[in-house]
């Protein structure tokens, strides 16, 4: 059963700015969907339209199968956790949590019980008499969550609820929120710009960019088969290395990708080689995550690019090595076309390459991604999704 | 200057600190002392006139005509509360003192309530013409009340409000509203949107949001406005001069009649003026933070 | 699919919900502010009674009426002098208080007049500037300072009876005298009660050998003979005398307790005895502050007293809003404190100063109570301003509501630029 559906929803501001562009999305009952994207991509606008705080310019929001165009926010059965928690500063924690019950005319006795129940579930039962100003960030977050679910909403909307917390707290709460939502069977639409949150919490993620829904699917699926170069670059840390390659088809043998002055061959039987072959004589973007790259011992052959170590990042448990293989880099946003393409290689911490050293990098062909430079779309056999 | 002083403090322990350090320290010391002296004198200029009025109100008529209030330093025995006793016993003046309350309190309450309601709509409810309406209110901020004296006098005459406390109150409400709306609207729009929307999501109607969220959060602004408006009405003379009759006149208007023979009426005028100042001064001293904020917010009144 | 103009509107919220919130305020504003504005405009084209359309005559009359012209002139003085003075003083004091510890207390003291009524402030300054030095502290202080440098005379208003002509320097004997003569100086025009207690009974001095002697006494005619020394009469001590020869003072002396005086070492040539004017000078009584010539400056000074606290508070708030970084960067760049103030603080503060200034101008244009209270009735026409004139014309002595409306409209037009300034500032802040 579909709890929330957006049908061709667009939001255009009076100045002509398009915040949301023709987005369709549905969230099943009990599903945890994360809207992921950089700031200003329109994800919060979608949330506000679902909440009933904003009316779409075009399209329709459907709740439980019924169009919600003229249903005011307070009657939608939807509740929301705000980025800065939006706790009422003049009310105690208990009164904050009880506010939705109070305004809907819930009798005092029942209200008190519900408040206690929800507060206990969030471990803030002993803070009910305090003011929001006297709470820590994590406690505020819990109070805001408690207030959001106390009415038993059909849908819970969360707008970057963890972004105002410190890193340690954040990782703890990620699991807690996701666990709680599942145990309560809540339908959640969760907005974040943090791809780790998206991947750890979501049943399904939807990636937005400039108001357009670029990709949607299971977290793992989107990570492994990003629909566009932007999604690819946005997901994963360290960021996917993207560089330019010239395609040359050697019929019935292989497709040669010229990367700087070096060549990688895609064997013809590879289905993706057929797709890439359409770009014969043109440039495409090649993407490689660190998982696709391994250091190649000197003299090894195959899909190896050699280059110079540009810089190193020691992370303790691993070291990231940037290797300049003499390729043109690709920026998904198209702003820095002339950046040098560097491959980011992950090595064990005890391996200590030296800056300026020449090293070979082995590329695992199966894990490479190919994108059309013009529209950023993935090149490959169609039919993964959509 | 403060920076210089700090520099010096750092330089001192260092052996062979440059001579300039010591000199500039001396200069800044003297300079600061001089500044303090000047400011103390300025403050004296501000206090002495009020102090003089206070002393004059505590001396009887013959003492006031014979010698200045400053002779009290040599003859403190002249001080007496008789003037105040007389004033309070004076039915007309005492009535006018009460009238001032009867005018100021409702005029303040009405303005605060009406302005809060209107400001909520101007801040948080979308309606066509909202911009225009706000700009009109801003424009009305500086409207001279003289513009309305004649027409409103006619209007009140027609409705039997001329010469009544109600009329005076209504006029004050009308001319208090633009500033009040301006001040509260500024504050209301500064309330985080999330807070309003959270309430909306929590199931609150506009009325509930206004009453349960906006008003409590806007307490400081309401306090500023209340004090400001109260003092404005309390201190008015012109409006009451036109619209109040003898029975509804506030203290400023009641005392005005005594102005003609100022020299011989000092005891009465000083006492009356001081009585009229007691309430505003008390309000000011107790709530000065809010009052100053109100004045800052309403820079254009 | 629907296409909507506004995106801000949330579903289920109609403009109708705004009506109950807005209605009370709008009704009052429309009835008592907007309607009167229009009414005043129309009314200003009708005569005193409101029956006859007179076109622009009220305006023409207004601009030819000498009282209104005085009011205009005074308003111009006010606008030119007062707001600039308050802004300047406020700026200086705000900057000075930045460095002292009791800044808050200081600002509180200066802000206090804002809390009390203009009426009470008027009374305060009426008292301060009261002309009699026994009542007005300003004149009392002036007299004190004056008497410190030129002590007042002992016998104000007294004058010799006969045989003396009055000159700038004093009273000069018409007849010359020489050593050995006795000069009698009977004084009148002075109350016997005011004679110093040490004065001894007057008696004819003996003729001196080679000395010019004389007597100065209070010659009361009632119960005595004019010009003669009577037993009840007393000599006047401490009167200065000069012997003048060819316009030059050759000797000076002073009377003793019995009123006698002696010029001991005069050469034998003729001299003229002169009593310097300082003996009889009327006491300095200060200035007529509340008279026609000083009244406007006096009222302006009291307005400055009232408004300076406002300017300081506002400017101090502006000062504290200046980013410390900007000032420190300038200091690090080698600017002196004065340069920092002149080149960084002032430019950053200028929007605040402008707002303060405009606010003060608006306030000045509406000035009413201060003039009404401080200026005594007889000089009110000298101190007149438009707001007061409007009241007087329509409600005071005039009773001409046509002319009053014209004045109200003029006042409105004078404030209108400030209104536009506010609206523009408001618009800019919003965008």
Topology record:
The complex is a heterotrimer of chains A (386), B (301) and C (431).
Chain A: E1 2-12, E2 18-28, E3 32-36, H1 43-51, E4 58-63, E5 66-67, E6 78-81, H2 93-103, H3 108-121, H4 137-149, E7 155-159, H5 167-184, E8 187-192, H6 195-201, E9 204-209, E10 212-217, H7 219-224, H8 229-234, E11 241-250, E12 254-259, E13 262-267, H9 271-277, E14 283-288, E15 293-296, E16 304-314, E17 319-328, E18 340-347, E19 358-363, E20 369-371
Parallel strand pairs in A: 3-8, 3-9, 6-7, 7-8
Antiparallel strand pairs in A: 1-2, 1-4, 4-5, 9-10, 11-12, 11-14, 12-13, 14-20, 15-19, 16-17, 16-19, 17-18
Chain B: H1 2-11, H2 19-57, H3 61-66, H4 82-89, H5 91-124, H6 130-140, H7 146-159, H8 165-189, H9 193-201, H10 206-217, H11 219-234, H12 238-243, H13 251-256, H14 262-286, H15 288-297
Chain C: H1 18-43, H2 57-64, H3 66-97, H4 103-111, H5 118-128, H6 137-149, E1 159-160, E2 164-166, E3 170-173, E4 182-188, E5 212-218, E6 240-245, E7 248-254, E8 260-263, E9 272-276, H7 295-321, H8 324-332, H9 337-365, H10 369-374, H11 380-383, H12 386-394, H13 401-430
Parallel strand pairs in C: 4-5
Antiparallel strand pairs in C: 1-4, 2-3, 3-9, 5-8, 6-7, 6-9
Helix pairs in contact in C: 1-13, 2-13, 3-7, 3-9, 4-7, 5-7, 7-9, 8-9, 9-13, 12-13
Membrane topology (chain B): Multi-pass membrane protein
Pfam families (chain B): BPD_transp_1
Domain ABC transmembrane type-1 (chain B): 97-287
